[in-house]
Structures are given as C-alpha cells and as structure tokens.
Amino acid sequence: MSKTGKITRRTLLGAAVLTTGAVAFGVYAYRKPHENPLAASDGDKQRSFTPYILVDAENTITIIAPRAEMGQGIHTTLAALVAEELNIPLAQAKVIHGPEGAAYYNRTMMEDGAPFAFFDKGLLPELARDTFGVAAKFLGIQGTGGSTSTIDAYDKMRRAGAAARIAFVAAAAQKWQVGPETLQCQNAQVSNPKTGKTLRFADLLQDAAAVELPESPRLKSPEEWTQLGKPQQRKDLREKVTGAPIYGIDIDLPDMLYGTVVLAPHLGGELVSADKAAALAVKGVKKVVAIKSSFGHGFGIIADNTWAAFQGAEALAPEWQPTSAAADTLALRNAHSDALKTDATFSMGNEGDAAAVLASIPSGELVSADYEVPYQAHFAMEPMNATAQLIGTKLTLWTGTQSPTLAKYACAGALGIENDDITVHTTLMGGGFGRRIDNDPALYAALLAVHTDGRPIKVTWTREEDSAHDYYRPMARARYQAHLSQSGKIHAISADIASQSVIGSFMARNFPSLASGGPERVVLDGSFDQPLSAENKAFNAHIVPTTVPAGFWRSVGYSFNAFFQQSFIDELAHAAGKDPLAFRLAHLTAPEHAPAVHLLKKLQEISAWDKPRPAGTGLGVALTASFGSWVAQTIEVTHEDGEIKLQNIWCVADLGIVLDPRMVRQQLSSAIIFGLGQAMEQDLTFSDGQINETNFDSFTPPQLYQVPPIHIELLANSPTMGGAGEPGVPPVAPALANAIYAATGDRHRSLPLGRHVAFS
Amino acid sequence: MHLTVNGKSHQLDADPQMPLLWALRDVLNVKGPKYGCGVAACGACTVLIDGEPMRSCSVPLEDVQGEIITVEGLADTDGTLSQVQEAWMDLQVPQCGYCQSGQILAATALLKENPSPSSEDIDDAMSNICRCGTYPQIRNAIETIAAHNQKQEG
Description:
heterodimer; A: alpha+beta; Aldehyde Oxidoreductase, domain 4; 3 domains; 21 helices; 31% helix; 21% strand; globular; disordered N terminus; B: alpha+beta; Ubiquitin-like (UB roll); DNA polymerase, domain 1; 2 domains; 3-stranded antiparallel beta sheet
C-alpha cells in the first residue's frame, strides 16, 4: 500500500486537471450524481430527502450544513436556504454538519481557481471556470474555503428544500386524491384548506420517499423570501454562551486516552537525541511513539490526561539536526529580494506593453516603490487537536476540519486502509482561518491510535506546537513601477511580486505522489484581478524556492497584494497631486467597475471624506475586489504625542445578494479586526529554522481597547453573489498605512506598521 | 485534594502541580474553560475564584483556594441564563465562540464590581483575546447591560 496519500485514479486525474488546467471527461460520467451519504440510514424511523434533509418519525427536521462552522455562522445561513424553500421556520430545524461525502463537493472553491478577475464574465474566463467546476465534481472534495460556502450552496440547498417540499405535497395529494396545487405546506406539515385536514411530514414519510424528486424545482424569487435576506438567530448561540462541549477539543469518550505531539521544527533535519526515559517517567505518561508523515515528523505522547502528555513532551526534549535551508528572517528576505532580480516565473492579466513603455521612459519620471510583508500564523483560538479510534481497519475521527475528505485521504494513506473504512465526525471549530484545511491533527491522532489497542485517543497540541507547525501566510515582497500621463492618469504600471507557492506547498504535503507546478493565481491575487483602468499593465510572479510550509490564511494572496497595490495607488495619487479617492474613481472606467464606483462614492459620503480635518488627523482609503465581493474602507487616525490612535473605520461592501445582513456585517467586522492584526502588531520571524513568536505573549492580535468604532454599509449593485468571510481583510492594511501617511507624512512600506509607529 | 466547582464539591486525586484548567477539563469533565495558550496570555481559560477572574491555565491545583465558578455555573438550575449570557444571546456576540466562556466570565466580574462601567473601564477589564474579532459586539453587550443597570438605579 502506498504511504503517500490514499487517492483513487479518478481523484488523481482530477488533481492533475487542477494543476494543469486541461480536461477531458465523459459527459455521461459527469451527469451521474454523487451517491447520497444519508441514504444508508433510511428506514422506518427516518428518511432522507436529498443529501441535505432528514425527516424522522417524530417530525424532527434535520438539515445537513456540510461546511465547516468556525464562526462564520455558516450552519445557520446554509440551513436557512433549505428552510426557506421547505417552508419551515429555521427555528424548527436541527442543523448538523453531517457525514463526509462527495455529494457535498465544493464546486465554487475550484471554479475560483481560474486565473481571472471575478467580475470578468468573458467567454474565456467562463470556459475556464466550467473546466475547473467539472474537475471539482470528479474530485468530489468536500471543503470549506475561499469564502465560497454560500455561493456554492445557493442553488443546491434551495433546490433541496423545494424538492423535498414538493415530494411531501405530492404524497399528501395522492393520499387525499386531490391536486397538489390545492394544498398548502408549512411548518413541516401539509394541509388541505378545503377539508381542514392536515398531515405531518412524519405521517407522509414513506410515501414522500417514494416520490421522484424534481431536479430543477421552481424556486422562490427573493421578493417571496420570508427568512433569507433577513437576520436569523444563529443556531449555535445557546451552546456557545453556556460552555457546552461542542468543539473537537471537548470530545470525551469512554475509556479515552489523551495525547500530544512534539514535532521537528519545520526547517529542521533528523533527530539527534530525545530523552524517552524522562518522558516515560512523568506520572500518567504511557507511551512515546515516533511519527513520520508528509506533513511532519517527530513524536507522539500517549497519557492519562492532557497535562501529563504536555509534561511528557517537555521531558522528552528532542534535539534535531540544524537546517541547511534558509533558516532566519534575514535569509528569507534576501531570497525574496534575489527572486525579484531574476526573470518572472509567470505573468497574469497583462494589457498593452508595460515593460516596453516603462523601459522607454527616463527613470527620473517613473514612480517606484518596494513593499514587504512578513509571514503570518493563524493562531485560531482552539489549538489543533483531533480524536481517533482504530478498531481493526476501521478508523473513526472526531475533528474540527475544513475538509473531512482530505482528512480521510491523509489517514487512509498513512494507515494503509480504505477511505470507506474511515468515519469522520466534523465538530464545530474554535476558529480556522484556513489552517484547518490541512489535516495533520487528524493524521497524527490516527497514527497514535495505532498504539492504543482500540481505545480512543484525543491528541491536543500545545499552543507552541500549533504555532511552530502552522502553514503560514507566506512572506512577500513587491516592486511596483508606474508612469503617470500629463493629465495625472496611470499610463503604465507594472508589479513584480516575489513569494513562495502556497499551492505547491499544500500539494506536496497533501498529495506527495503528484507533481505540481505551473502558474497559480494565489501569488498574484489582489494584483492582476483588481479594478484598475490603465492602458499598459503587467503583473509578474517570481516564485521563491523555500521549504517554509505555506498555507491558506484568511484572504490568502489578497492579504498582501492589496497592501502593495493600494499603497502604491495612494503614492501615485500623491505624485499626481490628486485626491486619493478621486484618483481611484478616475481609474474605474470600465462598465464592470460600476459597483466599485458606488462603493467609493458611498464611502466618501459616510466617512465625510471631503470634510477638512485638523492637523494630525489622517484618513486613508483602500478598495479591493476579492472572492466575488467588492469592499472599500476608510480608516481615520490621529497622531498625538508620538502615538497613532485609530479613531474610526468605515466599510462599504457589495456582495450582490446578501442572505443574512447581520451575519454579513459581523463577518466584515471580524475580517476588519483580523486585518488589523497583520496591519498593526502581528509579526512572525524566524531564527535557527524556527519561528520566534510561538504564543500570544509575542504574537499579538488586536485587543478590545485597540479597536475603534466600525461603521458598515452594504450596497447591492454587483450582478453576482460574493463571499463574506474574507473580502473584508485585504483593504485594512493599506487603508491604515494610507491614513498614517495622511496624518504624519511618513510612508511605511512594510508590515506590521507597529515596526514603524507606536499605536496607542 | 478538594475543589468546589459551581456549588458542587469534588474530591480528586491529581498532581498538585496540574493547572486548574486541566483538572477541570480532563478530571472533572467541566469543558467550559478552554485551553488557548497555557501562559495566561489569552484568557480563554478564565474562571471565577471567589468572584475574581483568574486564568486557570496558570493556577496550579495546590494554589487554588476558594469557590470556583465556570461558565456552566452562571445559569440558574432551571436553565435561566444570567444577565450577561442573555445579552450575549440577544446581541449575538459569539462567532466561533471558543473564547466566549472566558469573555462572559470577565464581563460578569466587571459588572459585579462596577454595574455601569465606562468605555475606559471596559477597555481596561476586557483583555481576553478573540481571534474572530467580536470586540464591538462584546462592548455593545456590556454597554447595554450598563445602561440597563443605570436606568434601574436612576
């Protein structure tokens, strides 16, 4: 059995498509629906209607919301899609994550891999999205990421609700020998207004199950919605204010053991020494086992309780060979600078001939600037953990994961068992931010479960292990250059971005047997795909070869490219002697830029942009288009006694269709504060192949006192639906840097800004 | 060793060096207090000891003196939520929710000492970290209670 990931040939093909972009699948195979993972439990007491709805004999309606609930409120919003069309109040439904299954594959997540701006609806971009979408279906990967959950579910889950409603009405109509159009369906029962008779869904269970579900039922128009488009109470609130044991870290099973891991530093080599005897001498420690995998290597400690496991790990004190790779921040910075001196690895979104135009102009007439951002870690509040139980070849996992499918792949490959031998219980998550798309916690728990004679084991990482073995938002450096025309417009602009390959790093650990490579949009996300009218544009990626593990960090490439580009646009505005907001408006001339024009005008109004402010007060603006949504922000700061104080943040966003305005506002507010983290103080540096900031005492996210009032407005001019979780992050850092420039006259071109200024 | 948690008395056999957090979670199966950092830097493990908010990850069992209240102990036995929990529900404060038991206990202690805290009082007292950034909602919830309390007094 291969030790390098359990994937079928079908998956392999799909993954190849994912990386190369080529596709040739049979239409028949494509049309064939995925099997309903709920069907196995169908019987007298319970019936499934589509992979999203379970109805039982007590008339309990359970909705499957098959995406990771890590704070976004996604279980609530996805359930509302079904409830709306099923015509039941959301409060009446129970919501669960449900089992892993290809039926829950995420098409949108992969469509968004096509290398085009989301607002570019041309033939080629649409064809590319279709190609990626077809690959997604064949891959069948259930995953949460890229702010895609609502977009992907929008039709699927409303159709599921409508189809089930139609089936219950049809079953009642047959029973009563009347036309279905004469009946009403509400609150999980069908009634006949003429006779006053009523049947609960539970009474119609078997008859409705025999009805063939329509594939494309008529859906309500948004004007007919009674729940969607309105704030819904989160389904998980009571549990979350009463301390209910809902997270992976809270799993408690009979006869359960506890464990932890102590892994080799990311850039480190082989083991030099480890004091196994000292670890085993800790009271409560039962075993010390070796871990080897494509994600990392080191040791697992098996113990009676978590504290004993932590103590055992400390006593083990393994030492590792020093690294040969670039191991400190200076070396990494140099590697990025060097990459910018070499030819671009690939380019995207070029128009005109920026290189030739810029080369033809004397350098004194050009505007140029270099920018840099450091690595970032996720620091989800709930440290990595998973629980595993292995009985024979049957593995059961309890874990907070953004992809239960990838959890299966990782464990099946490592244990030499089949994907179908694995059951994944996906728990609620104490934050994710992209970290939990990788399943090393489940893998290590499974590897430890091999040594527990069938007893379940919960493996909890220390915060220090969590941060030291994260998949980081990579460091990035950029060189921007532009020439302004006589009228103060951008004549030519070029960006050279140096960073490592996130996809390459992800593929190497998740699919080590597959070669990956070739252009990927992540490095350039937030540069080539932004609304910016200019005759000559070039966006060049310079891939930096490094072994630092990279991953998906809330808003991914946009998190750095927005800082680079929106800072540079600000610099260009000042160089042209123009107002930064008016300058941006002057470069939004294409018809598809219309939503951005509305955003900026609204922002101008609500932040009183044109109102003169006292000296020492500065207002900065930034605009980004990401994950299908348009977001613009202004930040107001004051500069007093040498300190910068944030006074206000205004945010205008356009997601097209908003399914729950309160949840969307909360996601935007959350994203803004997440963005303030990397903008203000969060730094991540390397020495001797390891990160220095391993806990909350040195990696310092914003605290309550640092967050000013946040004012959010939603507009709806965008013709398509956008995501909510990530698009609020990218504009924050540039808006703050631009505000500090406005207040102080100092331009800061690297993050975190706390390196350059003192925040009060 | 003897602990009183949420009004219930427990006898436990554990390493006196074990932090209170792990005794609560792994030995007594009280899962409300959360592990976040282990160094008293994030506040996810906050419990009340004789009414004072303490970071239980850094309090060894042998140093525990007094009655412990965790988030599980805030509601009445009939399930009626505390004023702070109610406000957290009404204003939909939690997102991922992982830090909220600590936040709720920190707010409970603040409001007990100071029923109508000012904005600065809230800044000073609420130092627990929330990675979802629910701070505006936390502030709003505390201010709502403070306003209510002030009205009651006035």
